[in-house]
Amino acid sequence: MGIARSISKILNPFSLSVTALVALLLTSLAVSLVNRIFRASYHLAAVTTLATVSIFAWGNTALPIVAVIPLIGWARYTLGEHSPAQMAAGCGFAIIACSASVYGFGLLS
């Protein structure tokens, strides 16, 4: 019983998935509102949100996921879709929204 409870507490899939969905919703809302005035990268915002939730959930084990963020940024920049400021805005909004979501659900102690 003790091992099952420990595994459940560590993984807690329901709480983690709800947190990730709320973080994506907050990020989408923030980027949508900002995009009325300034164009922020939604692609980078979404990937940064998922990477940040993974870091909060699994710690250093999830660091390889972070390597995807610059790859997507490079692709968006190479295609001429976003400037560095627009990419930074997308990542910034994602980190703020994700941190608020993780803190709000009590996953951040």
Number of strands: 0
- Overall pLDDT confidence: 82
Strand content: under 5%
For the largest beta-sheet, the strand count, sense and barrel status come to:
none
Looking at the structure, what is the overall shape?
Answer: flat
- SSE pattern: HHHHHH
Helical stretch tally: 6
Radius of gyration: 15 Å
Question: Number of folding domains?
Answer: 1
Helix content: over 70%
Helical/strand content category: mainly alpha
What would your notes on this structure say?
The chain is mainly α and 109 residues long. The chain contains six helices and no strands. Helix 2 (13-34) packs antiparallel against helix 6 (84-104) and helix 3 (42-58) packs parallel to helix 6.
Short description:
With 109 residues, the protein is mostly helical. The protein has helices spanning 2-11, 13-34, 42-58, 63-66, 68-78, 84-104.
Keywords:
109 residues
Lay out the secondary structure:
Blueprint: H1 2-11, H2 13-34, H3 42-58, H4 63-66, H5 68-78, H6 84-104
Helix pairs in contact: 2-3, 2-6, 3-5, 3-6
